[in-house]
Amino acid sequence: MKAEAIKLDGAGAGSVNLPDEIFGLEPRADILHRVVRWQRNKAQQGTHKVKTRSETSYSKRKIYRQKGTGGARHGDRNAPIFRKGGVYKGPTPRSHAHDLPKKIRKLGLRHALSAKRSAGELVILDDLSVDDAKTSSLAKRIKGFGWKRALIIDGARVDEDFARAVRNLADVDVLPSMGANVYDILKSDTLVLTKSGVEALEARLK
Fold first, then answer.
1. Axis crossing angle, helix 29-43 with helix 102-118, rounded to the nearest 10
2. pTM recorded for the entire structure
3. Tell me, what CATH number does 40's domain have?
């Protein structure tokens, strides 16, 4: 399928061929959900930790004799039944990551790109080279385009001047093609691909 490309000044830049096997799929929520869940679980730190009864600071001495007190039988104050005692089977540091087949990850990226195209939230840029790589001028251009929460994906490397200029813009993220991922694509309101970004994604997902 064909898509019209534009330049950063708003002028036309010809058309780009978008492969149907990447941009023409019917988005499946189940596949997108699996990939996003895999991403977020992998990113979770898992550093939560509680103290067990062997790590609390009370004495290990038996608090009173076993019989004759009229009370329940207890050992030391570190038991989970007491206030500030150890926690029984609490969380410990661990990884929340789980496996997901590579072909499902690739398929999820294809469906995410197709979802953006079918929703009309895909923009094709000629390239990211600009004469005045200043934050203020680029902010005006992006505002003029009407992009909100824009994710810009370039080729193998992002133009350094452009990346530096948009670094302080809260609603703009820039990634190389290898950094393209389902979560960031779905989270954005506008997905912007350069021509080299389209070529790199096509080579990555073929």
1. 120
2. 0.82
3. 3.40.1370.10
Hey, how many other C-beta atoms are within 10 angstroms of the C-beta on 48? 11
Tell which residue, 147, 127, 173, 166, has the closest CA to residue 5: 127
| Token pair 């087949």: residue | 101
**Is 153 exposed, middle or buried (CB count within 10 Å of its CB: 0-12, 13-18, 19+)?**
buried
Co-location of 37 and 121 in the same domain: yes
pLDDT digits (tens, 9 = 90+) for 50-84: 999 999 999 999 999 999 999 999 999 999 999 99
Distance CA 115, CA 182 (A): 11
The residue range of the domain holding 61 is: 50-90
Angle among Cα 127, 16, 113 to the nearest 5 degrees reads 85
User: What's the number of CA atoms in the CB half-sphere (13 Å) around residue 87?
Assistant: 8
Average pLDDT of span 153-160: 90
